[in-house]
Amino acid sequence: MPQEQFLEVIDRDEAERRFRRAVRLTPLEAECVPLAESLGRVLSGDVAAAVDVPFFDRSNFDGFAVRAADTSGASEESPRRLRLLAETLATGIVPQLEVVPGAASAIATGGMLPRGADAVVMVEHTDEEGGELLVRRALTPGVGVSFAGTDLGRGETVLRRGDVLTSRETGVLAAIGVSRVAVWRRPRVAILSTGDEIVAPGEPMQPGKVYDSNARIIADAVREAGGEPVELGIVPDDLERLRQNLREAVTACDVVLLSGGTSKGQGDLSYRAVRELTDPGIVAHGVALKPGKPICLAASGTKPVVVLPGFPTSAIFTFHEFVAPVIRALAGRPPASRTTVPARLAVKVNSEAGRTEYVLVGLVERLQTSPGETALAAYPMGKGSGSVTTFSYADAFLTIGRHVEIVEAGQLVDVQLLGRDLRPADLVVIGSHCIGLDYLLGRLQDLGYRTKFLAAGSMAGLDAARRGECDLAGVHLLDPETGQYNLPFLSDDLDLIAGYGRLQGIVFRRGDARFEGREAQAAVAAVANDSACAMVNRNPGSGTRILIDRLLVGARPAGYAIQPRSHNAVAAAVAQGRADWGVAIRRVADQAGLGFLPLAHEQYDFVFPKSRAQRPAITAFRRLLADADVQRSLAERGLKQA
To answer: pLDDT digit string (tens) for 152-162?
Structure first.
C-alpha cells in the first residue's frame, strides 16, 4: 500500500493562524483553592488587603513607648526623666493607658504602641530609678515604630490577576490573612503515546522497541506551561482502540496531545483517528518546519487536538511553538518570554529552502577582538530530530528563514535562549499611588504585560524618570506660579501622557463635629493646633504631602510625623481611630465609609522618558487611556479625563 501524502504542507505562520482561529485562547473558569495548594497557580482576580499590615502600630524592639518630644536634649550626661506607667505591653496586649506628656510605658518587640506615643526608646538607652525612667538618647517621631498600614494599607491592591504565585506571593497572601485564593483552573491536558514500538520506562527493553520519553517530556512541559497533564499511557497500533481513547480524552480534558503516528505511513494511525473529528477537525497537517514537518493541528469544538511528531526533538519543538502558548492562555498565564542574544556562528550551516529551520546550538564565550564585540559563539548541536539529548544539552536555538539556504561561519546571528523561567517587568511605574493606576495596570496584565509599581511619591517618580529608572511616573504636582499641574515640571528629555482629574479632600469619621458639615480649610485651621485631634500625613515628595503642607501653613499637628505612602493607608488610619483626619481622594474615602470635605481638583498624569516612547507596553498604555470603556471605568471610580 503506498504511503499517503500530507494533506497540505503550509507555512508555519499560516498553520499557527489557522490553529489559533479554531481553538479557545482565553482562561478557563476560576476556582477557589486553599492557600497551601496555590503555589504555581495564576490569580484570576486582583487581591486587595482586607487588613492593614502591620495591623497596628508596633514596636521594633524591647524598650519604652514615649512621646519623642519628651526626649528632646536627652544624653548620657543629661538624661530625661519620665514617669513609668503601670502597664507592660507584651505582644498580644492591647494598651489600656495613654502615654501622656512626661510618661512612658514598657513595651516588648512587636508590642502594640499605646495612644499618645510616637516613638520607642531601646532599653539599652535607658535606666530605671525610683519608679522613673531615665532616657539617655533623644528621639524623633517614628523611631523604633512600624506604623499600621505602612507596609500594606487596607484596600490596597496587593497582587494582580495574571500573577503567578511563587513563595513570595503566597507569603504576602498569608500576611493579609488569606486562606483560600481565586485562581484560574489549570487546563487538563491528555497525553497519549501511540505505536507498537513504544514501551514505558521501567519495562524490559526489547529489540525494535524504544522507551517512551516523549510522554515524560511533554507532561513536564505541560506543567511548566501551567497545565495539568493527564497521562493516558501507551496505545498500540489498533485504530478502534485509539478512536475510543481519543473520544474519552476529548470528553474529559481541555487539550488532547498524541505523540507519534502522524506521518501518514501504513502504521501511522493517529492522524486517521483525528481526521474523523469535525467542527472543525484538522486545520493543518504538514508544516514547512525542520524539525516538525509532520505535525497535525486539529480541534474538536474549541478544544485543541494535536498530533506531535514521534521524534523527541521534533515533538518538543512543535509543542513549544504551537501548543504551549495555548495552554498558557487557558491557564491565564502571560505569553512566555524568549530572550534573544547575539552570537557568532562557529561553523557554516546548510538549510533546506522552503522550510523554517530551528538549529539547536551550544553557546560558549569567545575572545572579544574589539570593544562592544559580541562575547558568544554558537555551535550547532546536530544529532537530528530523533535525538533525545540534544534539546536538554542545548543553550539556545537559531531560526533560519524558509528562503535561506546557507548561514556562513562567522556570521552574526540572533539566538533564542532556552529554559529561562523569570521574566522582567514589561512596564515599571514609579511615583504617586492612585486607584486609577491600579486599574490600568490590571488591564495591562489582562493584555499579557507584566507590570511593577513602586509607590514613592510624585517627586521621586519624576526623578526616577529623569534617570531612566522607570517607564512611567505617576505624578500630580501643582506649580504655584502657573497654576498648572505637572507640565511645568517636565525637562527636555521627558514627555507626558495626559491622565485624568481626581478630587482630594479631608477624610474623617462620620459624626465628628470638628469636621462634619464644614469647609475643608476652615476645619483644618480649627484643629491644626489641637493636640487632641491627630492627623495622618503622607510621605515627603508626594503631591498630596505638598498639598497638606500648603494647607497647614507651617503648623505641625499631632500625627504630622506619621507618613504612609498611599491613600488607602490614610483612610485606614482614620477609620480605625489611630488618627482623626487626613487627606485622600474621594473614592478611597467612600470605600472606607468616611466623611469627605472637598479640598482640591487635581490632574494625575504619567511622565515618561522620551527614549522609551516606543516601548510596546507604553504604546499599549496609551491605547488603554484612549479606550472609551476604560474612560467609563475610570469615571465610575471618580476619575475623569479632561
So the answer is: 888 888 899 99
